[in-house]
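Complex record, two chains
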Amino acid sequence: MIPARKLRLVASAVTLGVVTACGIYVNVKRAHLAPELRSRSLLVDALESGVETIRRAARDGSIQPTGIASDAPGMLHERLAADGIHVVEDRILGARRTLEITLADAARARFELEEQANGLRFVTAKATRASLEIELRALLDGVR
Amino acid sequence: MAMTLWRVFRREGLAALLVALSSAAFFAFAVHAVVGAAGVSASLRHRLEITRGKYIVEDVVRRALTRLEELRAGARLVVAEGQLSSFPQREAWVELRTMGGHRALVCGLNRGEPSRGGRTLIYRSKATRGLLPPEFSWALGELEPAESKAGLVFEARDGEVRSPVARKLEAMPFRAEKSWSDVDFSIHRDCWDAREGQTHTLAMRNFRPADELALQNLATPTGLENFELGNLHGSRVVAAFRGERDLVVRVKGHLWLGRPDRKLIVGTGGRSLLILVDGNVRIRGSVEMLSENDRLFLVAGRPGYGAFRDRDGDGVRDPSEILLAPHVHAPVLGPVEGGGLIYVGDAASRPHIDAGLLASQDVIVAHAGAEIEGAVLCRSLLRLGTSPGALVIRGRRRTGASSIPPRGFPVVPGTEELERVQPPELWQVRNHRYEPLESSAPIAGRSSEAFD
């Protein structure tokens, strides 16, 4: 009986230890997961805000009617910076312009502006974070 | 012996109880963590779906507005979601509805099969009175294009000269009666009998009865009454409208604007002024807007009115001048002088007109030509004389940050409100009326038919 009792006590202690370890593990994971999800939500906020900023710039002529590349140098960058979006690279290739950006929490993302042959212009915000791809695509000029 | 067993049981039972309690607490904790994370994740997905839907709706509404007359007639337009959607061919619908006393464009995006518990995301956007068709963003649109475009110049806003590109109107806008009855106020002879009792009195005072202009300038009196826009102030004629929103006015007669020796200055408080004129519009002199955000649009010819091709521009039909039908299969109605013609300038002056023009019949430009800063939409564009002066149609100048036009020619009044579809508002129908849902969650399990 005594060996069995010892065995049960040892088993109980081991179980308790395993449960406690698992609890600590889940808690640590949750502690990491919650901010990650919150930051993803903030990332969507930032991308949406950036899309609106670019569309405002297009509306008041900062992005000129002809093409997508002829705004006054830096104007669009400054506007985005006011929203906490910093442009680190601005590439123009044909009818496509790509703005590589960093956000306040150092997430990397980009805005793509493109003009189609029919004159429609689009803005696409793309970001990848922890294997999650977020993409928002909208008309650059809104409803006309 | 019994005491020993009790002690053993108590000791081992406590240990087992401790293990069981801690295990239960752990599992509860784990479930909470997983459910909480899943909830946040679902909320994020929902948020992305709503935001993407908003952009899709903007595109759907943009395309639906090309069929504005059908919307006005109460039709539910079914439109493909388009290239902003992951499923471009999936159908969305758009309606023009009255909600809470205000007109709204309502757009539904179907998500999932209705028979399998799919839901419809309902978005709504303000539809302001005076909504104009997208053709007003063109330079020149003709229903029956005139052949000669010699002397016609198109200029972009930046001064770049482009080759004349006239477009063909598939249908004449503003042919629905409802477009002419849903106005802020009407101008007619009776207004002056009881003017003090009218609302919009200040705005109405920008018009005055002007039958003497017809008697002075035309060979015969007109069948419809005549009104002039603006009042004399020093060397100028001024019309000042101060609206909180875009304004739509109907003139039940002919409208005269500008004078050969005085320009007309129109202020609209940064908004758009749309004037629907039952009869003809005669622009005799320059028309300028007070500020760069002010906009004026003139539409001539109420539904059902016909006219004649006034090749000599005298306002009287000669036997050789053909009748122009009123765009419907009905006898030509209207006054003998016709309705739906816009006369621009005269032989001596070359006016500068800062307004968009839509004539259900012809736009007739006098010998000296004109400069028009806005769209010209008509059945045909006629220019008088054997060697008419240049007609320049110029894209409207860029406006301030508070206003729109992003590119090209002038934009639609009301787009300030329409341009950005409002943040998603989800609605349900009770007692045949739309009511906002308190929850911002999607309406799961509802098909679009649930909103009829």
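Note: Chain B touches chain A through 54 residues (CB under 8 Å).
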